[in-house]
Design a protein that fits this description.
- The structure is a single chain.
- The chain has helices at 2-18, 21-38, 47-74, 78-81, 85-106, 110-121, 126-133, 137-154.
- The protein has 8 helices and no strands.
- The chain has 2 domains: 2-74, RNA polymerase sigma factor, region 2, helix turn helix motif (Rna Polymerase Sigma Factor, Chain: A); 85-159, Orthogonal Bundle (Arc Repressor Mutant, subunit A), CATH 1.10.10.10.
- Helix 1 (2-18) crosses helix 2 (21-38), helix 1 runs parallel beside helix 3 (47-74) and helix 6 crosses helix 8 (137-154).
- Helices cover 79% and strands 0% of the residues.
- The radius of gyration is 36 Å and the shape is rod-shaped.
- It is an all-alpha fold and 160 residues long.
- Pfam families: Sigma70_r2 (PF04542), Sigma70_r4_2 (PF08281).
- Residues 2-68 form the RNA polymerase sigma-70 region domain.
- Belongs to the sigma-70 factor family. ECF subfamily.
- GO terms for molecular function: DNA binding; sigma factor activity.
- Keywords: Sigma factor, Transcription, Transcription regulation.
């Protein structure tokens, strides 16, 4: 009977603070739960005033909690501080692959190492490599060809 008599009044108080229908309904329910728990401490000082105070305090607490939660979400860029887990995994795998490739290139004959790095890792053209290493362009092409043959013979796909 108490709930029926005061539900609209409590809802209006909650809504005036939180300005959200669903939140106001939740606060009204919490107010009645709190009222039932606090009835033994009620001292006949005006029931409507007493339950209104409970509703007001519940609404203010809910609004503060919602504001704190919103501040926590907007106070820092989570993606900036903590990249998503999938991206971190990709970065680690990529770094490991790069290290494996570098290690494998280091095991190649010395005359192939430079041309392979310059061509495949740094993306230089045959002409740029030839100029840089003071070689003929055909020599660069031949070394790259022989390096590829060497890789096929000495590297296993599962190594990468």
């Amino acid at each position: 009977m108490l709930i029926e008599n005061y539900k609209h009044h409590i809802y209006k108080i909650a809504y005036s603070v939180v300005h959200n229908e669903k939140d106001a309904e939740d606060i009204a329910q919490e107010t009645f739960i709190k009222m039932i728990d606090a009835l033994p401490s009620y001292q006949n000082q005006g029931f409507k005033t007493w339950i209104s105070k409970i509703a007001l305090h519940k609404a203010i607490d809910a609004k503060r909690k919602k504001q704190r939660k919103q501040e926590e979400l907007t106070s820092f860029e989570e993606d900036y501080l903590f990249p998503d887990e999938g991206r971190v995994d990709e970065m680690i795998v990529e770094k490991e692959k790069t290290q494996l490739v570098q290690s494998a290139i280091n095991r190649m004959p010395v005359k192939f190492q430079q041309v392979v790095r310059l061509y495949h890792l740094e993306g230089h053209s045959y002409k740029a490599i030839a100029d840089r290493l003071d070689l003929k362009e055909t020599t660069v092409k031949m070394r790259l060809y022989r390096a590829r043959v060497w890789m096929k013979e000495n590297w296993k796909e599962e190594d990468f």
